[in-house]
Amino acid sequence: MQPSLEKLRKFFGLEREKGYENTAIIGGLAKMLDYWEGEARAENIREEIIQAVVQRLRSYEGLSPVSRADALKGLWKRIAETYPEAGQRPAGGHPRPVPPAPRPALQPKVQPDTAAALPARASSEGAPTRPQPTMARPRPTTPSRAESAPGGKHSQTPAALSAPLTVLQGVGPRHASTLATLGLHTLGDLLYCYPRRYDDYSKLKPIKSLWYGEQVTVIGSVESVHSRPIQSGSRTIVEAIIGDGTGSLRLTWFNQPWLANRLREGQQISVSGRVEQYLGRLVMNQPDWEAVDVEHLHTNRIVPIYPLTGRITQKWLRGIINQVVTWWAPAVVDPLPEDVRSSGQLMPLGNALLQVHFPDSQSKLKAARERLGFDEIFFLQMGVLRQKRDWKKAEALHFAVADDWLEARLKAFPFALTAAQQRALTDIRHDLDSGQPMNRLLQGDVGSGKTVVAALAAAMIASSNSQAAIMTPTGILAEQHYRTFTELLAGEGGAMRREEVRLLVGDTSDAEKDAIRRGLVDGSIKIVIGTHAVIEAPVQFKDLQLAVIDEQHRFGVEQRAELRSKGTNPHLLVMTATPIPRSLALTVYGDLDLSVIEEMPAGRQPVNTHLLRPQERERAYTLIRAQVQEGRQAFVIYPLIEESEKMDELKAAVDDFDVLSKEIFPELRLGLLHGRLKPDEKDATMRKFRMGEYDILVSTTVIEVGVDVPNATVMLIEGADRFGLAQLHQLRGRVGRGLAQSYCLLIPSREDSAENERLLAMTESNDGFFLAERDLQQRGPGEFLGTRQSGYASGLRMASLSDLPLIEKARGQAQKLFEADPDLLRPEDALLAESLDRYWGRTSGDVS
User: What CATH number does the domain located at 608-765 have?
Assistant: First the structure.
């Protein structure tokens, strides 16, 4: 079996062992595409297989575990059908993970009243059948495109849109099966299969008129193609010259050797990219390209480009979609009320669907995309507003805190609260005394003092003889919070006894667990701090009134609901050190009240951040040695664990630990920490580093959250280009927690100007909110969202969670409608109510 397929087999098997949690590769299975796609093409793996793998893995993160299992099983079955050796048993006798075929999609029948309205199929395919509408499938399962699109299905949706694709002329069972691999099963799916980009043939520029810096599409004929090795043969460059009769343009692709065989002299191709300059000549580097049918050159229109799979072409798919769109888009009934459409100056839905597929002009395309994107954000907003209203309807106990009690607590602290901490504390005091359950998000940069605010909130609850639970994602963070809580609340002059605050984690002894459980039931323990152990079934509370969840995006909705279920409408405080951009705060976190701690405690110095080239690594080692000689400590962070998981030249913690300890720093004491260690081993290693028994901690990103070692002053991050800016900022926050000057050194895995340019943002700013905005624009919302929110974000196909003007527009319209008709009982809101229920699956669970 080819090595690229063997790697797929290995990682799919590992993913199955891990329960399809998208953890077989750090950062998710889609990360392997960075290197796998090129490797597979170099091995001449069939293009349809490569595209199938790419499409499945890019959408993998947004699926539920059950859907992920089905996706990988179906994908491997397809691979085994094309490459039979992939389905054979290896020499050791253990079968490769060749799972059963995925369940076939239901093929609905067609009702008599819709047959006449359907475009006729060719007679060779037999008489057309008649569709019945499919049943709605609630989110967050994997619905069809038509069902998941806002307003896509309601009682006035034409039943024919549920018809199978075989009712179309030119679509037989074979083509229908191929289209199913793209998630296209019904006519409605085609209607909502948006183009991935457009070629604007109405505004083509001849090559002689190109200008440096333009982002353009050019059509020309391939005049020459050749490839040559670079960097001592480790990489390949492919160069092509295209001409259009007015001039020639040089195209360059790096490390894509298969293109030399894909491009042919005389072939008409369309290329899109930025016009650059090299040695006085205009060039395009790494352009997108596609073969062009000559007949499209003179159509003088904006042509949609759709996602493809094997055995179908753009021309064929465009024609099939044109049948559906031109026939059915005008028949789609718009669920948005007329007053929302008019005040929002929105294009009607049917017209938007027509223009987004086959636009008459760029202005109409823009208006269509805005309308469809508005719908996505509007439905998201209506959901979070409904969630917030439902939450506010509940009743909660009042917890009034006297000013003199709070002043006494603050005087006992060895430091003064910042103004931002004071404001957050005021918000929480108001919530606790409101009679409604607090549902507040407390966000603040690393080291801003969120834990202190949470400790005071827990003390307010405990002072009324009720209980608080604090849940953290790691035992290291739980132990750190436990130390902070006991020092602040149970120290000299504190409000509580030490035995009233307890730590409950996975490796807590059975005897101690039993004692803690008894104390929680009889009420003698007022505050418990722990990991998932606090939501286990045996853990019961006498009177849980406050649930605090730290690093909330690390937990699923079900886990947060499980903690709250331990009490009756307890107050909820969720915390995150990941700065959340305003656009996200208005959308997926719109049901939460927000408090922001935007200033750092006095005495903290900004961390000096430097970007080094890989060959400058010795400079980083020199700085580490100098800091250790001054009595400081350092982190060295790697994105992977083992050599077998390498991507290109990516470093791996386990493999380089020996090199660092034996060759680079033989005179220093090094510890190793990674996610596959047992919890007690992690805690022991971290404890030794915190106590100064290690000079350097070599680690993966397991230290991203919650590690507080004020003596650590250097953070060296290898493979920094593999991290998002938000995650890099989190890692940087592990140093600079003391009074000494600290340093963060970023070393990318390869020389790459674009990646280095992105990382330069880290050297420009220590402002987490600035970096969060940049990260949202560059990498999307995945860095900021938990399991369920990521599912909703992945459902946005027209809108962007970084498009603040559109978000504010949709939020304003949603709030206005919600104030006028919160239950959508007006006749003009009936279709919207149906669509909203279908989109949200009639759920009353947490949004955020």
Answer: 3.40.50.300
